[in-house]
Specification:
single chain, about 140 residues, mainly alpha, 5 helices, about 65% helix, about 0% strand
Amino acid sequence: MTTFVILEGVISLFLIAGGAFAFIGSLGMTHLRDFYMRLHGPTKATTMGIGCTLIASMLYFGVIDSQPVVQEMLITLFLFITAPVSAHLLAKSGLHKKLPHVDKTRGRPPELRSEEIGEKPVPHPAQGHEHLTHENKPLHR
């Protein structure tokens, strides 16, 4: 067996894994019940699927052109940096908008303080309100 046959097998493995991850992530987007559960599909499985596909592309075009492929490396790096950040921002905006939960995901998240859970609006730090913990005691800094 030559190295090209082994390399084709590795590239095929990455492409199949990438397709499987992307399919599972897309399936999660359609079948999961609420906004918070749906965040896991594109941020975890689909990111891995695109990452595997880009690695296969780097291997293939790196061998064809006999030089390192910088574009796919930058795309992969950008993808793995931005996907968790965007998921975090989406989850925080969902909590801020008080989007409905499915019974499985209901609860009182520990990062929410008591004034954020009630009906009254959350005080903004620039308005001079002191920060309170969930027991309504001032935080000591």
